[in-house]
Write a structure and sequence with these properties.
The chain has about 525 residues and is of the alpha/beta class. It is built from 19 helices and 21 strands. The longest helix has 14 residues.
Length: about 525
């Protein structure tokens, strides 16, 4: 997030696109509701599915799945043509405006309406609501990123925010809400194939030299593989061994039949986890890890806030903290890691990661700190890009709409989109062990519009078979107006109806994220 969670409650307008905030981020969802109900903020919700947040919206935009760029370009067309953009901000703090302007000229409300299915007048209204606010915040999650055009979607959101001068100001910003606990911290610590800690590129000679000196090794300049690329390489025999930590690709990866074959091709599969997940059941070696309450360390949350956690209970059996397992394994393999405790690891982070340089255990004992925090006297950064962007000028990008990789046809006439429900978490490895949670959300459901249910002769609660070019699953139907005709929705929490048997493994060419949110399927009564 460029801005902080608390700022959401005090902004003038909120544009929530591709985010089911109340179910995926309930605490942040509560702040959005308070902003609307208690402080009069305008709320624009853009989502193919009528999520709970729509009840609080000033305006609801129901775009066809995968048409976000066309919607955003349409809004910018209105803002530019009506002179509603921040001309001074654009002139002084950005570059590339003219090229972007030239592209969005063709995305008139009428043209954008044809692509998105949103009435042209609603696109105009949304543009005016957003641009005329004193300050406005954009919230998004994986409804934006999990497409073959995910990078285009994010850049279009940045275009819109910069166009109105809402980046680098309190209450504004471009705010991706992270989907899992500490995923922000994992990325900060270099758990991406293209960067070291603090997003220092592996291709940078300067960055690489610094880490080589600190660790006493030679590091390759070539980026590694992403998750899907790794499994593809395993399937081809190019990757022989895989070490999986706290991840369950046997339910979370697209095209699960292919993923299973890839894992079975490995000479060695090691899984480090707190529970025996579906992936761990395929492993040659399972390393039992301690959970959050059984270890000490830090978590970095979605607003870049680093917070300390303390050990509350002893880990069961042979389970150890992740850092201990990694250190001991590395030492046994010939590279000694002699960290005395998590604080020693943090001291190394302070030395090698400029954005974390001032985030010490002594300070975290008192309060959480938001990076960048470059020295021990720095208070942390509430919101980013004040006065200038990290690259200097903010860069507008000219982006054309590109359709999803797979669209409905005669054989597969429905478009399926996926997501989560409030009462389950990710692949259900933890949440499905809770009796209370399971009572609230005991099984997978296929959301079908009443018009489609009538054509298919499917009734509420009846089992249906959903098939794509990659596989089939069966689950109960729920007939609802939450999804539009021609679209079905499924969640991916349940192994009994593993929705990722169906999803398309086509990747965004830059970020390499699979297109989970759109694939063509057929539906029939089971």
């Amino acid at each position: 997030m460029t801005n902080s969670i608390d700022e959401i409650e005090f902004t003038d307008a909120i544009f929530a696109i591709g985010t089911n905030t109340t179910e995926n981020h309930p605490v942040i969802g509560a702040k959005v509701k308070r902003a609307v109900r208690q402080r009069g903020a305008k709320l624009i919700v853009a989502d193919p599915r009528e999520i709970d947040l729509v009840k609080y919206a000033t305006l609801y935009l129901r775009q066809k799945p995968g048409t976000d760029v066309a919607l955003l370009n349409g809004m910018m067309n209105v803002i530019i043509s009506e002179g509603l953009y921040d001309k001074e901000y654009v002139e002084n703090r950005t570059e590339g405006f003219e090229a972007m302007k030239k592209v969005v000229e063709k995305y008139t409300p009428k043209h954008a309406s044809k692509i998105t299915g949103i009435p042209a007048q609603d696109i105009i209204t949304a543009a005016r609501l957003y641009a005329k606010a004193r300050v406005a915040s954009i919230l998004y999650t994986m409804g934006i990123t999990q497409h073959t055009t995910g990078v285009d979607n994010v850049k279009s959101i940045a275009n819109l925010a910069m166009l109105c001068g809402y980046v680098g100001v309190e209450g504004g910003g471009v705010n991706p809400l992270r989907g899992q606990n500490n995923v922000q911290g994992a990325c900060d610590m270099g758990a991406l194939p293209v960067v070291f800690t603090g997003y220092q590129p592996v291709g940078s000679d300067e960055a690489r030299a610094k880490f080589e000196k600190a660790w006493g090794v030679t590091l390759p300049p070539k980026p590694g593989l992403t998750i899907v690329e790794t499994l593809n390489a395993a399937h081809e025999g190019k990757v022989k061994a895989l070490y999986v930590m706290g991840e369950n690709p046997m339910l979370s990866d697209p095209d699960l039949n292919h993923a299973k074959e890839a894992l079975e091709h490995l000479d060695l599969l090691v899984v480090q986890d707190i529970l025996l997940s579906e992936t761990a059941q395929l492993a040659h070696v399972v390393l039992p890890a301690a959970c959050f309450a059984e270890k000490e360390g830090t978590f970095s949350n979605t607003e870049r806030r680093v917070q300390m956690v303390r050990k509350a209970v002893k880990a069961p059996g042979q389970a150890k903290a992740d850092w201990e397992i990694i250190s001991e394994l590395s030492t046994k393999m010939g590279y000694p890691m002699n960290y005395a405790n998590p604080e020693a690891v943090m001291r190394e982070i302070n030395q090698l990661t400029p954005s974390y340089a001032g985030i010490t255990y002594a300070r975290l004992e008192k309060e959480g700190l938001q990076w960048p925090c470059p020295n021990a006297d720095h208070p942390g950064t509430k919101y980013l890009h004040i006065n200038r962007f990290s690259r200097g000028l903010g860069l507008f990008t000219a982006i054309e709409y590109i359709p999803p990789a797979e669209l409905p046809d005669k054989e597969y006439p429905f478009m399926m989109t996926t997501g989560r429900v409030l009462y389950q978490y990710h692949t259900g490895t933890m949440s499905r062990l809770s009796q209370g949670i399971t009572e609230r959300a005991p099984e997978s459901l296929v959301e079908i519009n009443p018009k489609d249910a009538k054509k298919l002769k499917v009734k509420e609660g009846q089992f249906v078979k959903v098939s794509s070019r990659r596989g089939s699953v069966q689950a109960k139907s729920t007939v609802t107006e939450r999804v539009p005709p021609g679209v079905i929705f499924m969640n991916f929490h349940f192994k009994e109806a593993a929705v990722n048997l169906l999803t398309n493994p086509a990747l965004d060419p830059i970020a390499k994220i699979p297109e989970y949110k759109v694939c063509a399927v057929k539906v029939e009564a089971a």
